[in-house]
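Suppose a colleague, Dr. K., hands you the sequence of a protein chain of 296 amino acids and asks what its three-dimensional shape might be. Before reaching for any lab equipment, you can write down a predicted structure in token form. Begin with the sequence itself:
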Amino acid sequence: MYNWAHAQASQNIFCRILMRILSHRDVEQAVTMPQAIEVMQDAFARLANHQATVPLRSQLPVPQYNGVALFMPAYIQGTDALAIKIVNVFGDNAQRGLPLIHAVVVVLEAQTGRALALIEGGALTALRTGAGCGAATIALARSDARVGLVFGAGVQARTQLRALCAARQLERVYVYDPAPAKAQAMLAELCARPELPADLRVADDVASAVRAADIISCATTSKQPLFDGNDVQPGAHVNAIGSFTPEARETDDRGGRFDSTNGTGHSGRIGFVRRIGRNHIRQKNGTRQRGRNYLF
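The predicted structure, expressed as tokens, is then:
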């Protein structure tokens, strides 16, 4: 016999569970890039000090639609921070007039597992990725870096540009995209931001822009190296964030450093280096910054 009283009690319990929903605009208005970079510095420190549990990212290919679904849970000890991000990357979305990436983040209560918030993940992913490179740039790029170069003109490239300018006092930034009109549109959209330098340029020649750059950020889905590593000036810093699958590859085999070996099998850049020989990988761990150990 169906227990109506029990069903009503369960319904009342669920009715009392509140979940906050944050939109794309909510995320953009809630956190600045410098704030996000500071959070990422703390996250890298906790990861390096074994205070964070971050399982290997799970991938679910959707080959029929040229897509992949990515599942990324994480828990930070001592903070009750528990969440999972679901990111969907579908390569044909541009032809549909849609963003390449759609994502959501579910924030959970660590003590009970109940859902606390549902956050639009596109803005959060772009902000987090940009801030991660901003943190790496603060730790690794030369303090006198003045020229930046961003490959790509999508959502990720926009936050890469903002992060580089938050990390260093850049005087000039080049943007390169195979479709120059997209790069021009990106700069037209961002040029009014007061934190960006007045000298924003679309790069006509990749080699010249690479040779001039003190900091390079790659935010593409390219399967071929974007530039010749021989053109990178000594002491320049390179962020490459687009190679999230074994087939993708933004940089060539002229050396590299990475934040953690966990998950590098999914990275086209590191996966390639592993295939040609482990001795080609140079790792830098435990960088000291503000009295903490950081892992890059």
